[in-house]
Amino acid sequence: MTEKREQWGSSLGFILAAAGGAIGLGNIWKFPYVAGQNGGAAFIIIYLIAVMVIGFPVLIAEILVGRYGQLNPVGSYRMISRGSKFWVLFGYLGILTGFIILSYYNVVAGWSLGYVFEAMRNVFSQFTNPSIAANHYEKLVNHPVWIIGFQFLLSLITVLVVYLGVQRGIEKYSKILMPLFFFILLLLVIWGLILDKERASLIFLFKPDWSVVTPRTVLDALGQAFFSLSLGMGAMLTYGSYLHHNDNILKGSFFIALLDTLIAILAGIAIFAGVFAMGLSPEGGPGLVFKVLPAVFAKMPGGYFFGILFFVLLTIAAVTSAISLLEVIASYFVDEKKLPRHIVVLSAGIFTFLLGIPSALSFGIWSDKTLFGLNFFGILDFLSANVMLPIGGLAIALLIGWNFGKEEALAELSKGAGNWVSARISSLFSLSHQAGSKLTIGTFWFYLIKYLAPVIILLVFLNSLGLI
Ligand code: TRP
């Protein structure tokens, strides 16, 4: 006996859940820092183009495969390739990638939750200079009970939401958490800009410095766009599989990409406004959020309150991403193995928690256990983000472009999309739908997927491996 497969209750629910999956740690600490160090507005402009020419088209393709198959990545790959054994392998790769990313993502997400409690205990007020904040961070991540405890708590929250199902769990909580997230971010941006009287944050982020832009910057921007939209492992595919056949994929993907990008930029403003207004200097990597910001809150008027808000914001971003990762795994075992959802979610939760423990210890007692100079956490991060995601992304572009084919892909994309797909590309600018045999929005998308995306993803892949 199998129950009927669930679907989203509304398209807003889908968009918020998918945006929640995409908006994660990558938006809040990685994007601002990378943008700041790579030419500010110059990087942001390149990033916007990267989202438009690669991120958005591949996002559409992933959601399309899911909606077509109405199944997990393995099942949907099988459906769309008409039973090919070869293409299905990339579905399995997605599930494996899901396990790996979830295991270490929960660790960092756990710190974020842990920092909510540090903020509430008013620990930040002692950080009169950034080195005290940095020492405190080192002390915490070296503490196995603290780090594994919060990793566990975070895994538990993720499991509970996914356990409740697509509508009553993921959709319901996304509809509560995402508006809260937007509201908190807005408060932080406004307060940051009130304090940052010199507008140093805006200058840092928006003053274009083209002199630091190299071909490598472009590839980094493409890689970041790809990672930020959670592409390449079937997360968006899985969420797409809960859509109805007549839901509008173009519209959904557009809002997901827009929200993800907007949030990354707003997070940059909020963070750098605080950092500069308090006279500190920006630092890269995870350190920016966990070492520098607590010192910012120590000095900032209202810092107690805004410190709590910031880490709640970061935790929401991380939890909603972790939920989307766990759902990929859950959907696979439920659809393919016909196992009850409750059992799958609990077992997958326990398994990934255990798999994450070596990653958690990588920052403390196991930090000296390294391979090629990377600790356990570093290895998993490198393998998944730099190897498995690009391979997965390449597969989806090739599958749609070269196997599924143009007629089918455009027919599928047109479902629920009004007459946008057959409208000429020029109508994007005139805001009227001119049908025509010239280049249409649909064919333009298809050519991007068939020719441009594979080449660019391959270049990004080689870049992230350090080969070019
Ligand atoms: N997009 C997430 C972020 O910005 C990270 C991520 C990459 C992800 N791939 C994913 C999250 C797949 C969920 C599912 O932090």
Summarize the structure in short.
By secondary structure, this protein is an all-alpha fold. The protein has 19 helices and no strands.
Give the SSE string: HHHHHHHHHHHHHHHHHHH
Largest sheet: none
Strand content: under 5%
- What structural class results from the helix and strand content? mainly alpha
Beta strand count: 0
The poorly predicted ranges are none
User: What multimeric state do the chains show?
Assistant: single chain
- Structural Rg: 22 Å
Kindly report how far apart the N and C termini lie.
Answer: 52 Å
Count, helices: 19
Helix share, percent: over 70%
Ligand identities: tryptophan
Please describe the topology of this protein:
Elements: H1 11-22, H2 25-37, H3 41-69, H4 73-80, H5 85-120, H6 130-141, H7 144-163, H8 166-195, H9 200-206, H10 215-228, H11 235-240, H12 249-277, H13 286-299, H14 303-337, H15 341-361, H16 376-404, H17 406-414, H18 427-430, H19 441-464
Helix pairs in contact: 1-8, 1-12, 1-14, 2-12, 3-4, 3-10, 3-12, 3-16, 3-19, 4-5, 5-7, 5-14, 5-15, 5-16, 6-13, 7-8, 7-14, 7-15, 8-12, 8-14, 9-12, 10-19, 13-14, 14-15, 15-16, 16-17, 16-19
Task: Give an overview of the whole structure.
- By secondary structure, the protein is an all-alpha fold.
- It is built from 19 helices and no strands.
- It has helices at 11-22, 25-37, 41-69, 73-80, 85-120, 130-141, 144-163, 166-195, 200-206, 215-228, 235-240, 249-277, 286-299, 303-337, 341-361, 376-404, 406-414, 427-430, 441-464.
- The longest helix has 36 residues, at 85-120.
- Residues 21-22, 24-27, 101, 227-228, 230, 233, 235, 321, 324-325 line the site of tryptophan (TRP).
